[in-house]
Every structure is written in C-alpha cells, then in structure tokens.
Amino acid sequence: MDILQICIVIVVLLLLVKPVGSYVYHVFSNEENRTDKIFGPVEKLLYQIIGLKNRSSMSWKKYALSMIATNIILVAVSYLVLRLMGGLPVNPNQTGNMEASLSFNTVISFMTNTNLQHYSGESGMSYFGQMIVITMMMFTSAASGLVIAIAFIRGVTRRGGGLGNFFEDFVKAHTRLFLPLALIVTLVLVGLQVPQTLDPNVTVNTLGGAVQHIAMGPVASLESIKHLGTNGGGFFGVNSAHPFENPRPLTNVIEILSMWTISASLPYTFGRFAKNRKQGWIIFSAMMVLFLAFLSLTYFSEKSGNPLIHDLGINSTQGSMEGKEVRFGVAQSALFTTVTTAATTGSVNNMHDTLTPLGGLAPLAEMMLNVVFGGKGVGFVNMIMYAILGVFICGLMVGRTPEFLGRKIESREMKLIAIAILAHPLIILAPTAISFMTHLGTDALSNPMYHGLSQSLYEFTSSAANNGSGFEGLGDNTVFWNVSTGLVMLLGRYVSIIALLGVAGSLSRKQPVPETIGTFHTDTKLFGGILVGTVLLIGALTFLPVLVLGPIAEYLTLR
Amino acid sequence: MKTTAKFEEVTHGSIWMTALRSSLLFIVICGIAYPLASTGLAQLFFPHQANGSMVKDASGRIVGSELIGQTFTDPSFFQGRISSIDNDGAGSGSNNYAPSNPELLNRVKESIAQWEKENPEVPVSKLPVDLITNSGSGLDPHITPASADVQIPRISALRHIPEEQLKELVKEHTEGRDLGVFGEKRVNVLQLNLALQALGNNK
Fold first, then answer.
1. Closest to A473 (Cβ–Cβ): which among B12, B96, B138?
2. Which of A61, A196, A244, A266 is deepest in the core (most CB within 10 A)?
3. Between chain A and chain B, how many beta carbons pairs sit less than 8 Å apart?
4. Residues B162 and B63 in one domain
C-alpha cells in the first residue's frame, strides 16, 4: 500500500506536467491565446495602475534591476510592518513587535522564497503580519523566481530582442497563475478542515478536565500559496505537520502536488520555448531519476526504523515514528520530505531533525545539489547550468567548441557558470565551519555528536538553497543565526540569479551555429546520463567529506 | 553591451517608479484582498471547518477540536501519543530528538516502564511504535488502530466493560485511508473517548 500510494502521486504529477507546462508556455510566450479574453482586461487595468506604459523587452541588466528593485521595496515595507505590528490592526491575540535581527532574517527569508522561520507563527506573528507580510511575500517571491526562469529560458532559446519585460511577466505570474490557483486550493483545503478565520484563538475545557488554548487564524489562504509558490513557511511553528495546516492524507497529497507541479512542468515549458520538446523531457527525466533515488533512500531508511528502539524489544514494522504524524505514516512523510527539499519548498509534515541518519541525508543532499526540480524556477535554471557544464566537459573531451541549443559556449558563459556553481558550496561550507569555531554557533545545537554537525550543516544548506526547512531542534533565534543565515539566503538567491541572467543575456546575442554531422545532440538519453553524472560528480566532490562527518557517521554508530 | 533603441525607452528612474507602484499594488492584492476574500468565501461555504472543526460532547459543551490532540492522564481513557508540549494548542512542536540522542532512549525506556505498570497483561513486544514516540506537531489527534487495541484490556478492567464491546467501539471509530489508499488507518482519540464516556461505566 505504501509503494502504491507513492506511485499514484507520481503518476498524477506525470499527467499534469504537459498541460501545466503548456499553460505556463502560453502565459509567457506573449502570443495571443484564449486566456487573454479572461485575464486581458484585468491585466490592462493593473498595467495602468503601476504606470507601465510600454511593455518593451528589457536587456538582462534591466530585467535583473527591475526584479531587485521590486524586492528591495517589498523588503523595506515588510520590515517596517514586522517592527511595528504590535500596534497595527487585525491583531486579536495581541502579538508584540518583532525584534530587529529576527525581522531582518524573516523578511529576507520570505523575499528570497526560503521561508526559514526563526519565529513561531502562533506567538510571534499577528494575523496582520501573516497576511500582509507572509502571505504577500509568498506570492511576490514566487512570481519573482518564476519570471527569472522564464527570462532565462527566453534568453537561451530566442535570438536577440532582450529577455522580456519584467513587470509584465510579474503581473501575469500573479493574475494567470498564482492568484487563481491559490484561491481554488484555499477553498478545497478549507473544505477538508483547514481553518480560515480572523477570530482570536479559542480556549476550551477538555474532556480530560484540562484547559486547552487552540491557536487559529487565516491558515488556508497561507497554506495554499505556501505550496503553490514553493515557499514553505508555516502558519504554525511545526508547519504542515500541524493538524490545522494539514489535517488529512488527502490534504497532504494536495499540498505535495501544489508545490511540485509547476516546478516539474518547467522543463516541458522550456521544451516548448526551445521548439524541442524532447529536450524538455530529457531534462525532466534527469531530475526524476535523481528524485526517485533520494525518495527510495528516505523511504527505506525510515521504514527500517531506529535500531536503538528496536533493541528495547519494540516491534519495528511501523518504521520510525518519532517526529511523524499517525495520519501520514512513513509513506506520506517520506514522500513529502523528498518533494519539499526537491522543489525547495521547505514546508515539513514531519520533523526532519528526527529522521533516521540516511533518511535525513536525502533531503540534505537534494538541497546541496539544488537541481532536482527546484523551487519556482531556480532549480530548473541550475539544471540548465549543469547541462551547459556537461556540454562543456564533453566538448573538452573530444576537442570541439561546446554548443548548447545551437549557441557556442565560450569563456564568458563558463566564467559566470563557475561563479554560480562555486558560490553554492562556499556559502554552505564556510558558515558551517565558522559556526563550529564559536560558542555562538555551537550553543544552539540540541543534539549531541555527529547529529549536531548535521543540524548546523542543514541550516546553512537550507538557507543557501532557499529551501527553508530545518533540523528544528537548533536554537536558531539568536543574533548570530539570524544574521548569518540571512546573509547566506541573500547570496544564495541573488548571486546565482544575476550570474545566470548574465549567461542568458550573453547567449541570446550569439549567432546560431549551423548543425553539422559533428554536433553533439543534447536531446538524447546519452546526454540525460551525462547530465545526471555531472550533477552527482560535482556534488559528491564538493559535499561528500562533510556528509561523512554528519549523517554517515551517525548511521555507522547507530547500526 | 550595445543597447538597441528599444531598450532605451526603459530608464533606471522609471524602473524604480514602476517597481514602487507594483510593490504597493501587490501588497494590497495579495496581502489584503486575497486573504479577506478567502476568509469571506470560507466562512460562507464551510463555517464548521473554517472555524477549527470544534467538537461538542453529549451535553452540547465544546470540548475541543477534532483535529487537535488532548492529553488523557486518567488510565481509564484511551491515551494518545506522547507530546512534549502536553498538547498545548497555543503552540506546537516536539523535542526534535535525533535517533542517536540518548535522551530519546531514556524517554522510551520510561514509557515502556510505565506501560508495564499500567498494562501488565499486554507484553511490550505488542506495543506499537506510535504510542511511545513523540508526534511531529505535539498535537497529533490520532493513534493507529493497533495502539487503541492494546489499551483495551486495561480500560476493560478499569471500566468493567467487556473487551468485545470496546473492540467494536474502536472499529467504529477507525477511519480508513483517504480515498482508500492515501495515508494510514487511524483512530481519533478524542472522539473515541467521547464515545467511551457515553457508554457509561460500571466502576
């Protein structure tokens, strides 16, 4: 039954990839299509409101500047709201203002689509903050990330003409994708018992004779965009493990598909733009192969349970249930964990800190590679970066100038790609090392020995990959952790985005090279294999040593 | 880079102005209009679910939410999962014990000792894992049917209700997998105990 329910979810995803990928293509190809009738008039009005007179195409620099400018303004407004929210309206539970370093961390976390949370929603965020900062940024950061991927795709598939107009794309991402989808998913979730109310928390006298306070609020409207936008920050501290955020296995499946589908459809969208759907499927397959490997690792590791508990004479057939919910069991938990770290969502329906060593290694490794589907576009763009690297390595081996989609790959592109590839491990490994040199870092660790190392490593990996899940035992609401992870999130988001838009801008200005008998085709299974190999090789060379010190050492001591 | 005439229409100043206006626009749409519209529709169509799926006892008193676990210290009730926050619904969370953490092992040993004391007739090897582990949320409202079954001998003895009758009760309150395939079979502890209380007892 476990394997069957996992397979059903994957099959549903496979069925959704083509229609959703085509829809995204139609939204952003800017060719006329049927949906214009519905959305066109609304968008015209919105363009007028923001003062967008001509929707002319932008160079990569202008496109990047527009995105960064919008993000800076949103960050500034949100920071003010968090610092002042105690005195602002819609605060029935009288939540106070947020402290400065925590506000810094929180606004960056949500703007970068990370959603690392060093606060607890129940006590640290007013309903106003949940709506106007958290829910709002879940839309705008997802839209920012998605349109970057679209601009990148335009750059590598079109010749000349810039990357498109950022503001037009940004508006369309909201009107044609996120807002309508979020409204539908919200209502479905409420129907399945996720609360949506502005009334204050409830206090009851329980059956057992105790007094119980129950936190509530506008949960469903946040829950839907949290997954659709691969954001991942929970309304409550324990995120989608909370019975109000995720009350049943069916809501769990809906949340998994919500976060997975758009990300997984982007390779198909890419195939449409490149007028080579096979190319899209090859990239999708490479991602899926990696995904299935990590899913298997987590599932079988969790299913085999914790050997120390079994040694006490406890029946082990149920698997490891520490930190998991009964309604999800091992299958729905393992699937959620693998998808949330693949799609860099970062919501959790079980506590990743309590995962068995190898079960915890899989999400960690997915975030280190950061190419398995990926959140709102960024993972996809990273995968294309590895594809270009793969082409480059193959080109070196046979002594030809490498080409990708008919463009020559030259030193300018390779330099930018090298920056993007090297930045990721640097901002994970260096801060992790620093955190072990000071008691400011080591004091936060709640688990002993090798697992302690994993806690710090996971926190920075999650920040750099803009994922946002955590090994949550870590006592991370201190100035040290708020500032360090805040900076890592900023670098993790914007360095690679700028470098990759640079690559796209440079490729879009190249003359296409005619295909010859010696052209290395990138839409073949062979290339799919090379792509997976390149990703694993670079990933293993970079991260294996630290993984041996953390989860692998813990695994060996537990057996 | 060479900019074509088309690019030059977009100046840096106009980018910042448009960025400001679109930021404010989407703060209003996504941060205010969308959650309020969602709340209005949710309250209109699904008032029970939208307000936390509260549960009443036989006398009509609200005793909690169907979705939020409660602590039952009285051994004559079915007991739920371990919660390091004592099922305090104002918060959520667990101790986040790693599998290698010695504290985890100590807590499990304590649970086993308590189990042996309260349930002398059921051996530890029959004890399902979910009953001696902390849920992720600290608010898990469910246990597995097996975890309810192993508590029957104890409750039967304390309440003088035949085991067969309790087995029926657990069966009635066992929820299947969603759509017959997703998730796990489970028993809602609060609702099971409400039904148990309604049976009355002979103690």
1. B96
2. A266
3. 392
4. yes
